[in-house]
Amino acid sequence: MSVGVIVLAAGKGSRMKAGINKQFLEIDEKPILYYSLDVFEKNNKIDFIVVVCSPDEEETIKSCIIDKYGFKKVKKLVVGGNERKDSVLNGLKVMDDVDMVLIHDGARPFINNRIIDEGIEYTLKFNCCACGVMPVDTIKVVDGERFSKHTPRRSDLIAVQTPQCFKYDLIRECHEKVNREGIEVTDDTSVVEYFGHKVYLYEGSYNNIKITTPKDMIMAKQIYENLFTK
Ligand SMILES: Nc1ccn([C@@H]2O[C@H](COP(=O)(O)OP(=O)(O)OP(=O)(O)O)[C@@H](O)[C@H]2O)c(=O)n1
Ligand SMILES: C[C@](O)(CO)[C@H](O)COP(=O)(O)O
């Protein structure tokens, strides 16, 4: 069985307002994207990695991250699209002879081996899965005027993270269809759900944050210290 990973790095990082793309911001002198790649590189169940990036960052990612840190499993660096789902499809299109694919946000540097291994295990069993955590806030469903319509039980809710893991043929087919039909999605589990497939949700980690705003950088440095320097 061949297992590939798509690491997404083709976003703009606009909410970070850093002047450079957030994936190049450093934690303990290494860029965020380094950490997102390193765990997959070292996991012996992962066969290869495809990195998806913006055209103007291709050279920097190659020289300052992939070559510099010797990521041997990164077999392809491809250009992404306007939306996250376009970037995923571009990554899927350059994969061949692959049975399973794990799709991961480059902006989530604190992925771990337990999450990767369980993702592979549950995909073998259920065809698609994603990790996530129970929200810490109470979540409301609202109407168009921001009045609360109802309050789902928190124990019924999961804030979904990445990696999101799929049998390759299934996710490729569903992403192609979503692209053709112009359906709006914010993650890859929604792509398969849209066509009626069931997605298993397993335990992620509260450390597996998506670095999005400047405050997340402060939190990321704290998480890093707790995980790696204590
Ligand atoms: N067209 C896009 C948009 C997003 N991403 C990737 O998807 C992940 C999650 O997206 P997000 O955190 O929203 O990143 P950005 O789009 O970079 O951030 P922003 O929305 O603040 O510009 C990131 O790793 C980002 O690089 C991508 O590959 N292609
Ligand atoms: C895929 C994702 O990380 C799951 O939580 C999330 O939906 C990405 O959203 P973004 O707005 O593209 O960051």
TrEMBL record:
Site (Transition state stabilizer): R15, K22
Coiled coil: none
Pfam families assigned: IspD
Pathway, per record: Isoprenoid biosynthesis; isopentenyl diphosphate biosynthesis via DXP pathway; isopentenyl diphosphate from 1-deoxy-D-xylulose 5-phosphate: step 2/6
Site keyed Positions MEP for the nucleophilic attack: positions: R154, K210
E.C. number: 2.7.7.60
Catalytic activity: 2-C-methyl-D-erythritol 4-phosphate + CTP + H(+) = 4-CDP-2-C-methyl-D-erythritol + diphosphate
PROSITE patterns xrefs: ISPD
InterPro entries cross-referenced by the UniProt entry: IspD (IPR001228), IspD/TarI (IPR034683), IspD/TarI_cytidylyltransf_bact (IPR050088), ISPD_synthase_CS (IPR018294), Nucleotide-diphossugar_trans (IPR029044)
Gene Ontology biological-process annotations: isopentenyl diphosphate biosynthetic process, methylerythritol 4-phosphate pathway
Origin: domain of life: Bacteria
Keywords for this protein: Isoprene biosynthesis, Nucleotidyltransferase, Transferase
A GO molecular-function descriptor: 2-C-methyl-D-erythritol 4-phosphate cytidylyltransferase activity
NCBIfam families: ispD
Family in the record: Belongs to the IspD/TarI cytidylyltransferase family. IspD subfamily.
Function: Catalyzes the formation of 4-diphosphocytidyl-2-C-methyl-D-erythritol from CTP and 2-C-methyl-D-erythritol 4-phosphate (MEP).
Record protein name field: 2-C-methyl-D-erythritol 4-phosphate cytidylyltransferase
Organism: Oceanirhabdus seepicola
Gene designation per UniProt: ispD
